[in-house]
Each structure stands twice: as structure tokens, then as C-alpha cells.
Amino acid sequence: xxxxxxxxxxxxxxxxxxxxxxxxxxxxxxxxxxxxxxxxxxxxxxxxxxxxxxxxxxxxxxxxxxxxxxxxxxxxxxxxxxxxxxxxxxxxxxxxxxxxxxxxxxxxxxxxxxxxxxxxxxxxxxxxxxxxxxxxxxxxxxxxxxxxxxxxxxxxxxxxxxxxxxxxxxxxxxxxxxxxxxxxxxxxxxxxxxxxxxxxxxxxxxxxxxxxxxxxxxxxxxxxxxxxxxxxxxxxxxxxxxxxxxxxxxxxxxxxxxxxxxxxxxxxxxxxxxxxxxxxxxxxxxxxxxxxxxxxxxxxxxxxxxxxxxxxxxxxxxxxxxxxxxxxxxxxxxxxxxxxxxxxxxxxxxxxxxxxxxxxxxxxxxxxxxxxxxxxxxxxxxxxxxxxxxxxxxxxxxx
Length: 399
What we know:
The protein has helices at about 20-30, 50-60, 95-100, 115-125, 145-150, 210, 225-240, 255-265, 270-275, 280-285, 310-315, 355-360, 360-399, and strands at about 5, 35-40, 60-70, 75-80, 90-95, 130-135, 155-160, 175-180, 190-195, 270, 290-300, 325-330, 345. The chain is of the alpha/beta class. Helix 11 links the parallel strand 11 and strand 12.
């Protein structure tokens, strides 16, 4: 009987989509095990590719819209409409309107970037008759708590002089009042479900500013000011809506947009894989697998806090199925993943190369890494077979 391998990767940011990664890994496994049965189920986590993945899984449709990007420039984004749903269900991803990939390297400053375009996506979904909106949270380039989104939806964020504040996280320090009287009334009639990382807090030691701010361009001297601005925002958001976002799990998702979705839009925040896995065949295919291969751009001590390899490992561990994780970068404390269902992990970089080279050759590198992982497992199977044969020989001799 041939080995059955389930390939369940994330995408590698700015290199490969989850689907492209799965195809590359399958190519590598076939080189090592031509007779293996290969199952593929690319996984998305709410970031880039979320909308397309859910649309494809349900045979839905995609529509392009123009919204305000995170730096204030217009950008082309997309809205999906799911097939096979009892009500008209739109799906949007924050990355399409406020993603880090939309912020040029020289303009990465979370004090200034805005989630205004996310509000534009919500309005566009409402304009198209959405009765339910699913929001994928991930890969954002903002830190404004969803304040820009709220402004796009009609909320007025006012300073002590009654003037509307500007956009971006730094401006939140000026808020003295949040006026929701002009909020789009259609929000009260639509169900919004947001797929968030529940580990992402809005404030504090594990808050969005300290953990993700530097990745978005925040300088060390900015962190305290951005944290204070979000704290002020949270206080006034609770005063206006009654929602304590400071203590809400997942409120820090996508630069705190989780907080704005819950308080301003009345969204329900779901652990993202509880939503995502409803639209994948992962759990069904897992029961048929002998081995699982997953992949992500980086594997480190943060991976167990809601990243795809750890979720794949957690689910596979319940079935007693080993998981090997492949990553472009093996970072600090990556060994922590061994306690979360990951049996082994490997870098896809088999030789020294620049980041530009690794990005350009990601498909080949990932295929080669999957082949090497499969061949290593093959050696293990040969050793196990040899050990079993020797044990049989010893039993025969003793008999």
C-alpha cells in the first residue's frame, strides 16, 4: 500500500500563494515517492488569499472595487461573493485594502497608515446587497484600531475642539469624543463575522503595537506613543459603544481592526480557523493521511500563537499523524513548535542566497525542500523496516 501525504501549506508572503506552495511541494514529494498518494488542501489564515480561497471553495465570484489604500492613494481591491450560501454572503480581506504589501518600503509608518479602505470594502459589500459579510483579518500594514474604517463608514472621531481628527494611529491620541450618529444604518441589518487570531490583544505586553508595530515600520521611540494613542481610542470606543475592546480576545487583529469591527460594526470575532476550516477539506483529508507537510514563510516562537503550521500540527496530533513544517526562515525559538504537533521542521534554503534570490526561486526551493523531507522520511521507513526484520530474525533464532 502506498504512502498518503497531505500537503497543507500557508502561502509564502510576496513569493507564493498557498495554492502555488501546495503544487510546488507536491512536485517535490513526487520526485522522492512517485507512487505516493498526494492530497492537497492549501490553508489561508485571513490574510492575503483569504477571499479568493473561500470564493474558489464555494464556486462563488469576485468583483473589483477601488478604495483608499493604507497610504491614502487609491488602490484596486476585491470583494468575493460565496456560492452555495443561504443568504447573500460577501467576503473581504483586510490585506486587500490595508495590507502591508500596499505600503512602499519608504512609507512604512504605522503612525500614519489608515484602514479607511477597509470601510470602503464594507460599504461596497453593502451596496451590492450583502446580508452577511465575512472579514479576513491578517497581513495589515496599519495600527489604527479600525479608526479609518469607522471614518469611512460615517463615524466621526472628534478632538476636544469638536473637529474631526486625521487618519492614522498617531491621530487617535487627539480623540475626545466618538460620534456614531452618522454611521451607515445598514450595518445594523447585516451579520458580520470576522476571522481573527484570538491571541492578538489590542493593548499591553502582547498588544498589537509592541508585537507587530516594528514589522510595519514603527521605530523604537514611537512605540510608547502609539500604545497611548490606541489606549485613548479604546477608552472612547467603549464610551461610545459599550464594548470593552481593551479586554476583548482578537481585538488586536490586523493592527487593531478587530476592535473596530466588534465595537463599530457589531461584528462577531471568531478564531480564524473555526471559520476557515468550514470552507476547506482539511479535516476530512487528514483522516486519510499518513504524513502531513505544511509550510510558511517564517517559523519561530510566534508560530504557536495562531499561525498555520501550529494549527495544522494541533489538528494532526489529535489523529496521531506526524507533521513536517518547511519554512523560508527558521527564527528564534522555533523549537517551541515541537510542543504543538510539529514533529520536525526544515528551512527551504539549502544553500546561501540573497533574499531577492530566495524570493525569485521560492517555487524551486520549496519543491526541493519537500523532496528532501520526503527522502528523509523514506530513510526512516527503511530503518524501521530493517529493525523489524532483525527483530523477526532474533525471534526465529530464539525459537
